[in-house]
Here is the input.
Amino acid sequence: MQAEPSHNLSDIEIDNVKVGDTKESVLVKIQEAVREYYDQAQIDLDYTVKGLDALVENNHIKAAGSVHIQAQGKNLTGGFIL
Here is the structure.
């Protein structure tokens, strides 16, 4: 059985996240972008999102900051900063 190739996330850019967006809408944007590289990608299984919770208040983005998306597991590599 041949191993499936890994997909590098480093080329992903998401530039349409704004203060006031909901946390869920940001997670959807991340998920859609990652799934363009690996359509079966699952958050916390194939990649992690770190730093988003620190920017959220009352379920909305309250301030600009860095959110790190990092591949984990065997199907994805690399990562990007939102």
The helical segments are 23-35. The longest strand covers residues 47-50. The beta strands are 7-8, 47-50, 56-57, 60-61, 68-71, 76-77, 79-81. The mean pLDDT is 90.
